[in-house]
């Protein structure tokens, strides 16, 4: 997901859902086929969310480049490390289920 970007995040608190709209930079991936589009937009749809946090709290989501993704298998904590205008942000999610939905 390096050089891909998070376009938007929506947290639906009453349903314990998080939707992350991502623009994937496919041409940088090892298995990229030139017949595929260079970029693909989609949504990571997290359900049964137990934790959702953006740090720092003032961090703004707006086409932020993904620098790194970390997953702790024991705690199920998924972290996105993102670029910001003047800082680096972290989005943390603990969820029991996630789906990828392509946007055409």
Tell me about this structure.
This protein has 104 residues and is mostly beta strands. It has one domain. The protein is 0% helix and 63% strand. It is built from no helices and six strands. The chain has a six-stranded antiparallel barrel. The mean pLDDT is 91.
How many extended strands? 6
Shape: globular
Helix fraction, binned, reads under 10%
Number of domains: 1
Radius of gyration: 14 Å
Question: What's the helix count?
Answer: 0
> Ranges with pLDDT <50 over ≥5 residues?
none
Sequence of secondary-structure elements: EEEEEE
Strand order of the largest sheet: 1-2-3-6-5-4
Which percent band covers the strand fraction? over 45%
- Main beta-sheet strand count, sense and barrel state: 6 strands, antiparallel, barrel
Structural class, from helix and strand content? mainly beta
Mean pLDDT across every amino acid position: 91
Distance N terminus to C terminus? 19 Å
Keywords:
63% strand; 6-stranded antiparallel beta barrel; 104 residues; mainly beta
Walk me through the topology.
Layout: E1 5-12, E2 17-25, E3 39-55, E4 64-72, E5 77-83, E6 88-103
Antiparallel strand pairs: 1-2, 1-4, 2-3, 3-6, 4-5, 5-6
